[in-house]
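Sequence in, structure out. Go.
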Amino acid sequence: MTAIQKKPVSPIEHLTPEDIEQLGVELDTIRQDILDSRGEKDAKYIRTVIDVQRRLELGSRAVLLFSSFPPAWVVGTAGLSVAKILENMEIGHNILHGQWDWMRDPKIHSTTWEWDMATPAEQWKHSHNELHHTYTNVIGKDNDLGYGIMRVDEDQPWHPFFLVQPLWNFINACFFEYGIAAYDLELGATIKKKQTKDPDFKRRVKGVLTKIRRQATKDYVVHPALSIPTGSFLPTLAANFTANVVRNLWSHSVIMCGHFPEGVETFEKRSIEGESRGEWYVRQMLGSANISGSKAMHIMSGNLSHQIEHHLFPDLPSNRYAEIAPRVKALFEKYDLNYHEAPLPKQVYSAWHKVVRLSLPNGWLATTNAKNAPQQLAMLYKMSTGGPKVRRAAQARLNQLARKTSAAA
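Output:
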């Protein structure tokens, strides 16, 4: 995946400016159709999901009061994991996008909802709604792309530090809610710029720590303490930790599948200068990927399995994405664009393949085989221990070898 302008053949070179603007008009029509048809059926959907989630969480926590009994631990942990995923993905994420603000229900509104995550809702809305959805897949602008800890494009200079990015990505997946909290704080950049004493930063850090303390107290103090009479303190503690990790792994996987599989485009900063409405739509279309699957899978993913539709229309009710997906796909076909969709296992594999591939110098993975592995490893060692000049020379050799390998294929 390279910045779209640097591709030998641009996936949109066949589109005229008039085509792009007409595409925008047609997408606006789809959006308006949904806005005009929102009603009681949609409101009933989100209220039902919230009711089911709350009942499932309460029931699972009740079962875990007896979690010293292994079957109760398994049932309670599984139920709590599902409840946390539902609250995070289909409920919290979408309410905070303002998808249900039209109901004018103060209990289900983006300005009042607080979710079961380490990061406060207000901070997340800024980093996600305002930044990620505005600058989707723009390198250097969209920090969701690699969360500031990974190399996400071949045009980014390779450095030995990137060799550990598969490990960083796995750790980030296990503790995703805390990674998101640090990302929302722009913690790395703030420390690098030595701005940690900034009053606004301190205020935001205090908000995050308060939220983490509240979440930790609920999951790791209060609920386990209620299990003491049945001798289930430690099993309940372990169940809550497990449920949080399962939720983190699931949400990380779904989000990775939305923007990181092979074939999803990234964009340079200069490419969005003076961007029109139609061009913004095209960037969302090419910078997102869908996950095919069952209705249950779509609900458990917060309907982010319809990531393309979500990025085109982030404030439309999530239960309507499946309805408009065929119309959106038809526009992809009409304008000869790639509608990137695949089953969950394939998308997860593709995303992780890219994480590993980009952790290595450009072309290293593609040009390495059983016969030349010793020489390739020796080259990688030199690149990892040598300076910039050594890396540039070795990269030039790798590029030459990659061209020969590609020509012979």
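Check: The mean pLDDT is 92. The longest strand covers residues 290-292.
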